[in-house]
Structure formats: structure tokens, C-alpha cells
Amino acid sequence: MRRLKNLILIAVVAGLATSMQSCGTANVNKLFGSTDDSYAALLQRAQLAYDEGDFSLAEELANKAYARSSNNGDAGVLLGNIYLSQAGIDIFQVVRKLSALSGSGSGSTTSSTCSSSSSSGGTGASNPLGQLSCLLLNLTDADKAALGAEQSFPGLNSVGITKVYVPSEVNDTLRANVKTLAALDKGIRKLCPFVSRSLVLSQSIDERHTSKSICPDQTNTAYNGAKVHISFALLHLIEALVFQQGVLIDGVASNSGYTGVQTVSTKISSANFTSATDLVNALSSFKTIVDASFDTSNTKSQLALALNGLIMVSQSFEAAGMPSSVTSIITSQLTKLKQMASTLKTSAGGTGSDSTYQAQALKGQMNEAYAKAMAAKINTQCPTAGSCAAEKTNLCTNYASISQGVDPTKVQKPTICQ
Questions:
Q1: SS3 assignment for 96-165
Q2: Within a domain: residue 48?
């Protein structure tokens, strides 16, 4: 049975990677020297260039085909594959990793290139999506610099930190300046018109998906819908993993070169504060960093778009009929987030959008280890309910923000905050 599932998987992915029929014994020189600029001829030559690894020529020819016909969904699929390749992504590798992690149930696959220092279920390589991120992506220093910026936080002077990396809001400029995102963005824009409105895009907060100029509805044309949705899913998966690295700059891959949330948490946890006031100042800065890095109120934050991307992955795979042996690693994560989001919404009186509470749940999942560390530090500095009376309000307010969305059954509040 397992072998049969693997064969089906291989067939599905092979079908995606080969958007058109093979050129077979066709004369390659004749094809590339052809003056036939019909949609079919251009697409055939583009497919051949793609198969040969000439992604620049493949892109040029596929874009010509895309512009030649309104019935251009299959050209969109090929362009999606081309842009994934230009982003340095191997389709077969992605699906193999998804299948392996989905099959393991716990994300136990490891790699020497992955950081395992983060113990939270939502951060670092100990989390299945964190593993995917560090196994599939190799962001350059320029990419990391474009994803965020270093900021000063005087409250962290007592722990020896002067600059902290904070992810930036996502816009067209940011995407253009991150090589991987720039390629993925092109593919998403080409494929979006052919993606199901009701099954997929209706759940999106991404402005590219809601824009009629970027994503006009062409779902009434003829094309291979399964391939469209698989390619759309893979593009969004890699984009979401890029944003995850932006949010967890020092918590997913090793040697990021930046001080991020994880490093700040570690420094505060190990610091010997001479007064509760110093701890208050450090926690206040940490709260600001957490709120900015895991921004749940901004639909353009990297956290919000990472979550939205994962939803697009899940819905697109479902629309394509992809087997659970490939998709369960994504769907199980989303199920947990939605369950926690429902709890958060109920606690808040049932007001607000589901997407906001889902973002809060993702923030909580990613911050679980940090919330535990901060609770332990407050308990060490202020061990009894009556201690740190003057600082209690500030400590508990900052802790409440840091631990927003964390499952209360997994993390206990500091003693003075109970």
C-alpha cells in the first residue's frame, strides 16, 4: 500500500514538473530555430528550455505564450515551475520532504544544517515547518537584510544587547529585494487568475489575490486545474517559509548573523539582574520586539502572510486532490492553530475576525518557549506573591503581551501574576 501511494505521488509530481508532453524525438535545433509563434509552439519550446535547465529562455518563451492567449493557464503552470526553479527550489525535493514529514507524524527528520536550539513546538528545527524552512532555503545575507532591520532597545543594555533584528512589513519593494521572494511573486501573479475563488482565494488576506488587476478571474478557461493548484501551493509554501525565517531570524537556521527574538530570550533568561527594575526594562523591550516581530494586527506583517500562505497551501492542495500523505504536515498545523484561535475568540467574547485570532494562535505557538522562559525568570527574580510589589504591574503587563496566544495549559503564569 505504501509503495502504491509513493508511485501515485511520483506520478502527481512528475505531471506537475512536465506541464506539456515531452518533445520526444523532435529536432531540438529546429524547435529553437522555429519562427512559429503560436501559443502551442511557444509553450513547447519553453517546456524544452525548462527541461534543459535554461530557465531564462524558458521564462522568455513561456511569457510570450502567456501573452499570446487568454486560454493560458497551462503557460501559467510552466511559469510557476520556472519561477520555483529560479528561486532555487526543486519541486521533487519539496514534495519528498513534505511526504517524509507528513509520514513521520512528529517531524523527526533532522539535518546538520538545521538549528535545534529552539525547544518550542512552533520555533526552530524542532518544528516540522521549521525543518522544512532550514532544509529547503538558503537565504543570502542580502535577503536577510531586506527582510528586516536592526533597531536599538536601551532596555536591553543590562543584558549586553545593543541591536535587535525586527522583520519589516511586506510590500512590493521588500519582495523585489529578496531574490527568492521576487521569483515566487512572479509565479504567484501568473497563476492567481486560474485559482479557485471559492475553494482557495476566498480565505485569503493577500492583496495580490484580491486585486482584480493582478488576479482577474480566468477560471472559466481551459487548463489543468490540479497542476495550477499544486504549483500555487508550492509557491506559497516557500514564500511562507521565507517569512518564517524573517520572523525567527535566529531561531530557524544556524548562524543567521543577527540577534533576534530567540537570542534576546536566552540573554534575559541567563542574566543576573541586580534589581527588579532592570528586569522590567528588559521585559518591556522584549515585549516591544515580540509585538513587532509577531505582529497580529497588521495583514501585511510577515507573521500574517506566513499564516495566510500556509492556508493557501492547504486549500490549494485540497483543491488539487493531493493525498494526505503529502499534505498532513500542513493541515495538522493549521488544525491546531484554528482550535487555539477558537479558544482565544471565545475568551475575547466572540468579537473580531478569525484571521486575527489565528495570527495570535501562531504567535503563541512560536512564542511558547519564550513565554516559559520569561515566566521562569520573573519567578526567580520575584519568588513570592508579595515580592516586587512596585514592579508587579509592569512585569505582568509585559508578560501578558509576550505570552499572547500561548496555550495556557502548557505555560503557567508567573506567581506574582496569578
A1: HHHHHHHHHCCCCCCCCCECCCCCCCCCCCCCHHHHHHHHHCCCCHHHHHHHEEEEECHHHHHHCCCEEE
A2: no
Q: Give the domain range for residue 115.
A: 91-418
Tell me if 251 sits within 8 A of 126, measured CB to CB. Answer: no
DSSP structural state of residue 384: S
Q: Which residues are within 8 A (CB) of 311 and not within 5 positions of it... i.e. 6 or more apart? A: 203, 204, 334
Q: Cα separation of 237 and 252, whole Å?
A: 16
Within a 10 A sphere around the Cβ of 245, how many other Cβ atoms? 27
| Helix, strand, or coil (residue 166) | strand
CB contact burial 216-243 (16+ within 10 A = b; e otherwise):
eebbeeebbbbbbbbbbbbbbbbbbbbb
- Reduced 3-state DSSP string for 221-237: CCCCHHHHHHHHHHHHH
The residue among 90 and 292 whose pLDDT is bigger is 292
> In the chain, how many domains are there?
1
CA distance 359 to 67: 38
Tell me whether residue 365 is exposed, middle or buried, using C-beta atoms within 10 angstroms of its C-beta: 0 to 12, 13 to 18, 19 or more: buried
Whether residue 370 lies inside any domain: the answer is: yes
Please give the torsion angle defined by the CA atoms of residues 196, 198, 204 and 210, in that order, rounded to the nearest 10 degrees.
Answer: 70
pLDDT at 123: 46
Is position 84 within any domain? no
Average pLDDT, integer, range 175-197: 97
Lookup: cell for 149? 532591520
CA–CA gap between residue 296 and residue 345 (Å, rounded): 14
Q: Which residues contact 212 (CB under 8 A, 6 or more apart)?
A: none
CA distance 228 to 78: 9
**114's grid cell:** 538545521
Q: Read off the pTM.
A: 0.88
**DSSP 8-state class, residue 168:** P
- Structure confidence at residue 360 (pLDDT): 94
CB 60 within 8 A of CB 83: no
How far is Cα 248 from Cα 243, in angstroms, rounded to an integer?
A: 8
DSSP annotation of 169 reads P
CA-based R_g, the chain, Å: 24
The pLDDT of residue 254 is: 57
The candidate with the shortest Cα–Cα distance to 287, out of 374, 377, 376, is: 374
Contact between 209 and 299 under an 8 Å Cβ cutoff? The reply is no
Residue 355 within any structural domain of the chain: yes
